[in-house]
Design goal:
2 domains, 13 helices, TIM Barrel, 13% strand
Length: 323
């Protein structure tokens, strides 16, 4: 119930207007958001790189309201790719298709995505297309497949969410072409008609998909993470759930998958101890580093994922007040 309420609030304009007006909200969100500017995010990436952890930069934004804003977002993503190249940091980028116009005009979205991927190829980098709520899954997979055919699998990857019934079949189809896939549990409020309502079922499907990803990697020659940390291997395991991580390590050992042929992905501000521990064991680790002014939906979804995140916000609220 609490999760559903928070996910509703993440999309509610009235709630956004109220909560973003509280300075305590911005302070609490700073735990998960690198800052409002690209300079802030680059500093975080440099800190991560110094301890052997890679990054993916995400200039926050989704459901842009005009085509002009979608083109502006596209330019900002390309600027992020160029800044990564200039700073020589170990990072790629993540994007949402509704940020670059999917909800407005699919043709314009495709043009914007094409421009982003042209820049990624030019700079030898990689773009991960985030998966949004279930409504956008068919169009997202279609655009991803088209771009993978156009630019190659080393420059574009996709996110799949284990709470959707369709995801295992989607992964099996995508792996036929060696698609680079990030598996996560999912962070949207979905009806029982399309998503598993019980956590146990989501976890079990997550583990099944991880096994498929490892088998797919073996089938395609277990490509490792690139030496510069930008191009990921085929499987990217995105979770802070230690049970899922331990299962993944066990599956990888059984499949004889080299450590550098998979990577674990986590969020900035959550479980640095776990991130560093996996890196010390020789596993590639990538931290998702969001930045920008459009932090509200991302932040509320983080509160919905774990009660500890919500209590962190509440304790800050009562400790420092809402002024």
């Amino acid at each position: 119930m609490l999760r559903s309420i928070l996910l509703y609030l993440s999309q509610a304009g009235w709630a956004r207007n109220i909560i973003t007006g509280w300075s305590v909200s911005r302070r609490a969100a700073a735990r998960f958001i690198a800052g409002e500017k690209l300079d802030d995010a680059i500093k975080v990436v440099n800190t991560l790189n110094r301890i052997g952890i890679n990054a993916t930069l995400d200039h926050l934004g989704e459901h842009t309201s005009t085509l002009e804003k979608s083109r502006q977002a596209t330019e900002e993503i390309i600027a992020t790719l160029r800044r990564i190249d200039q700073e020589k940091v170990r990072s790629n980028v993540s994007i949402k298709l509704t940020q670059i116009g999917l909800a407005l005009d699919e043709t314009v979205c495709e043009e914007n995505l094409d421009a982003i991927l042209h820049a990624a190829v030019e700079l030898g980098n990689f773009v991960r297309i985030d998966m949004e709520d279930s409504h956008w899954v068919p169009a997202t997979i279609s655009l991803f497949s088209s771009m993978q055919g156009r630019f190659g699998g080393e420059h574009v990857g996709l996110v799949i969410q284990s709470y959707l019934y369709r995801s295992l079949e989607d992964v099996q189809k995508l792996l036929q072409t060696g698609s680079r896939i990030r598996i996560c549990k999912g962070a949207y409020d979905e009806p029982e008609q399309v998503a598993f309502p019980k956590k146990q079922d989501v976890d079990e499907n997550f583990d099944r998909i991880v096994k498929e990803l490892f088998s797919g990697s073996v089938l395609h020659g277990t490509p490792p993470i690139s030496e510069n940390g930008k191009i990921p291997p085929i499987p990217a395991i995105a979770t802070h759930d230690e049970h899922r991580i331990n299962h993944a390590i066990q599956f990888a050992e059984e499949a004889k998958l080299p450590k550098r042929a998979l990577e674990f992905q986590m969020l900035h501000g959550i479980r640095r101890d776990l991130q560093e521990g996996l890196a010390e064991r020789g596993y590639p680790v990538r931290v998702y580093v969001p930045f920008g002014t459009e932090w509200y939906p991302f932040y509320i979804r983080r509160l919905a994922e774990r009660p500890a995140n919500l209590w962190f916000f509440i304790s800050n609220f009562f400790k420092k007040g809402s002024k």
